[in-house]
Amino acid sequence: MAAWNYCVPVSIILVACLVNTARCQAVQAESVTVLEGGTAHISCHLQNYDGSIVVIQNPRRQTLFFNGTRALKEDRFQMVLFTPHLVRISLTNVSVSDEGGYYCQLYTESTHHHVATLSVLVPPETPTVEVKQEAVEGGQAELTCVSPRSKPAATLRWMRNGREIPGDVSQKENGKAFSVFSTIRIPVERKDNGAALNCEAIHPALNDQKRIRHYRLDVYFAPTVRIVSPLGILREGDSLTLTCSVTGNPLPRHIQWSKINDTLPERAEISGATLQISRLSQSHNGTYLCQAQNNFGRAADQYTLLVYDNVSLTTMVPPTPNATQPITSHPVTQTILPDKKDPGAVVDPQSAVPYKAIAVVLALLVFTVICVLVVTIWCSVRQKGSYLTHEASGLDEHGEVQEAFLNGNDASQGKKEYLL
Q1: Which of 24, 244, 273, 407 is deepest in the core (most CB within 10 A)?
Q2: Within this chain, do residues 215 and 230 fall inside the same structural domain, yes or no?
Q3: Are residues 159 and 111 in the same domain?
Q4: pLDDT tens, position by position, 277-288
């Protein structure tokens, strides 16, 4: 009875009792968990060992060691320790196929054994991202994060700017491991191009660490074109450089320069996105076009060139009339300005006549014309009044002569000469 109390019955200890000798022997096996590719140590603890046969078997019940002697030719298994208290073997380069129960058996009058369970963890590799549907401006992107192999199945989640994006998760068996998939579908615009997304894999074998795949969102969109032109007025003899600024995804590889309704000038030189014309002349005037395209559309921009010469015009502007001074003319130089409708040229503020000065000149012209007309009319009226006065005086003298003649006066005495 005392011998029976010596052995404490627990679920993980198998007791082999030799009733006829009143002695009790026990064997206890330790379960172990190891990462795939690592080394597992399988231990069998013995109690009251009296030299009985100890056998260790693999999950397929093949004998590995018999009382410390190798029974199976498998170099990955090695006998590490064999004592009356502990038997230990090692298994290197563990794989999931090695997983299962390893038997520690003690042969007495009856066979007793205890199973050491070997568990193998397969940590996930860094997940990959598969593009299921291309991201086109105005559409949606469909991306799948894949963890090809893990045990137990890894947990996948999508993150953007610190926020989780819900995905559709699925998994399938891959031998004793699992493949896990997480798919997201998100609407995209041009501004989303280059946005950072992360796919994270979480697994107990990683010890609270994560395997993260960084992904840049690739949004495709049609190109945009803008011609960068020089400032100021272009005159004959100057040089012109136009640069075609192009965006798009993918970026257009070919940029085309042309001239609307005409061919490019002989002096035009094209280098990639740049058009250069040296020694400009007015024959180069016209509208120049830059075009670019990719698989998702095309775009164009145009520039209207107006080349001016350096000719100046001289006009005579009369001053305000004065009663004591003769009317004179003063030369005023007027610079020819480019047409305001010219969309391709920019007027140089230093070379243009201010609008206020033009208004003043026009006002002086109108005032001078009005003054000249008033003076002319006044002089004409004055001369006509003087003529009528002399004519009336002549008629009075003629009446006196007629009266003398009727009264019989001597014509010779009353003869007078009148000059009208």
Answers
A1: 244
A2: no
A3: no
A4: 999 999 999 999
